[in-house]
């Protein structure tokens, strides 16, 4: 008797996500535990973990209505996740490019006796990686061009994402300032004035 081929964890994720996208309905876990084994060959014992894994990655939405917990995901959910990742990659690419330009300016002024080759190489490598990631995400987005844009309205976390992005770039600014201070012994006030950084720059609450 031949053994049934074992399904990998990633394949289970893909099959479960396809189930949501094909049906475009809302499910309770017990319903998924009945449907997934029959239609997607995912063993019932694995259904809960696979669904939770997709929820943790932001690919499946969940909410409690009364005493019941429902799960759902629409095709545009994946498109939105890809678009957000692309937007973040673009923001990071722009930020690292700005860092590189600023550091090159500082190098021109303070390069006597100071070697920053390693730091520059690190930034250039990071920019290259981000450019490759941007290209990959651009290609991924093309797969979802036919998705309904109205599904964007379902996103409820845009404010949180914007706040996190703002704090992330604020943290990057502080990191660059700290690096400049250690490397070139420049005071905070001079760095702020030279690069137009507000003196009251702080994290968003």
TrEMBL record:
Record field: transmembrane: none
Major location category of this protein: nucleus
Purpose: Required for proper homologous chromosome pairing and efficient cross-over and intragenic recombination during meiosis.
Subcellular location: Nucleus
One of the protein's GO biological processes: reciprocal meiotic recombination
Domain Mnd1 HTH: residue ranges: 16-75
PANTHER family with a match to the protein in the record: MEIOTIC NUCLEAR DIVISION PROTEIN 1 HOMOLOG
Protein's name in the database: Meiotic nuclear division protein 1 homolog
Provenance organism: Sipha flava (yellow sugarcane aphid)
């Amino acid at each position: 008797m031949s053994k049934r081929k074992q399904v990998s964890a990633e394949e289970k994720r893909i099959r479960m996500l396809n189930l949501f996208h094909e049906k475009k309905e809302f499910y309770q876990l017990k319903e998924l535990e009945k449907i997934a084994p029959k239609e997607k060959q995912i063993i019932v014992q694995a259904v809960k973990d696979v669904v939770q894994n997709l929820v943790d990655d932001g690919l499946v939405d969940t909410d409690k209505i009364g005493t019941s917990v429902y799960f759902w995901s629409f095709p545009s959910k994946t498109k939105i996740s890809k678009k957000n990742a692309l937007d973040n990659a673009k923001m990071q690419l722009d930020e690292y490019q700005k860092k590189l330009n600023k550091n090159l300016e500082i190098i021109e002024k303070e390069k006597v006796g100071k070697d920053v080759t390693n730091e520059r190489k690190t930034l250039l490598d990071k920019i290259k990686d981000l450019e490759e990631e941007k290209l990959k995400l651009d290609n991924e987005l093309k797969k979802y061009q036919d998705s309904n844009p109205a599904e964007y309205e379902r996103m409820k976390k845009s404010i949180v994402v914007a706040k996190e992005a703002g704090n992330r770039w604020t943290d990057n600014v502080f990191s660059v300032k700290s690096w400049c201070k250690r490397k070139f012994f420049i005071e905070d006030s001079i760095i702020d004035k030279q690069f137009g950084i507000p003196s009251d720059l702080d994290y968003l609450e």
